[in-house]
Amino acid sequence: MPLVTTKDMFKKAYEGGYAIGAFNVNNMEIVQGITEAAKEVNAPLILQVSAGARKYANHTYLMKLIEAAIIETGLPIAVHLDHGDSFELCKSCVDGGFTSVMIDASHLSFEENIALTKQVVDYAHPRNVAVEAELGRLAGIEDAVNVSAEEASYTDPKQVEEFVERTGVDSLAIAIGTSHGAYKFTGEAKLRFDILEEIQKRIPGFPIVLHGASSVIPEYVDQVNTFGGKMPGAKGVPEDMLRKAASMAVCKINIDSDLRLAMTATIRKVFAENPTEFDPRKYLGPARSEIKKLVINKLVNVLGCAGKA
Prior knowledge:
Elements (H helix, E strand, L loop, with lengths): L6 H10 L3 E5 L3 H14 L3 E6 H7 L1 H15 L3 E8 L2 H9 L4 E4 L6 H15 L5 E6 L4 E3 L2 E3 L9 H11 L3 E4 L18 H10 L5 E3 L7 H9 L12 H8 L3 E6 L1 H17 L6 H24 L6
Parallel strand pairs: 1-2, 1-10, 2-3, 3-4, 4-5, 5-8, 8-9, 9-10
Antiparallel strand pairs: 6-7
Helix pairs in contact: 2-4, 2-12, 3-4, 5-6, 7-8, 9-11, 11-12
């Protein structure tokens, strides 16, 4: 099966009341853990690549790893650029075989956001590549994304109809209280479902995306801290909130920090319990298995997309 776009995925997800997992990939073990999980539960999949991952692992290596995953699993997989910050980066990924790109111009004015998004749409659509954009700004730090709490802003529902109509974008990332990184909340977790509901009313049937949606699973945080790490106060989005969002207009939920935590917690444990170990297979193998376990839980119990491939 060749790479697929997200358009049919999102249509089925919206109608079915579930979301597709968009998992960030950086190396072979992460790709394998995610795709083996999706194969086991027969789930559609989006593998997304940030500019930082592309720089770290090399575009060609990542695309060949994903090609191998498609051969091994036979699953419908889309490859998505996460947080593209320029037309040039989006164009490079379109030309390089990605089937979906995100242009993140949320830091610009409304008119500038529209103009840059439309420029990407006009290039991508004739090449059968879907485009995601963003309205509102999420706080937090992850890869090249660094937005302070003061700079963050909720999405204004009154802007979404005009934005979607003028840009021709295929999906829209919104800000309703999620944030990037492992420190999402200092107090009680809260998402603005009222904003999501208003957006759903204004653009019915249109696929919405949640960024910064890792749950920062406490067991992994505890394991990191137990075996020498320092992550006090790390807190994510509760999984029941994500399931509720997936039952509404949210068709794509981004997950990155949880993958990093699963890998790091496992490797720290191996090193602590086996201090003489130096074979990468002996710590990357268990980390890969833990990522698979994590992703199966997300696909089945959080996203609701198991069996939907």
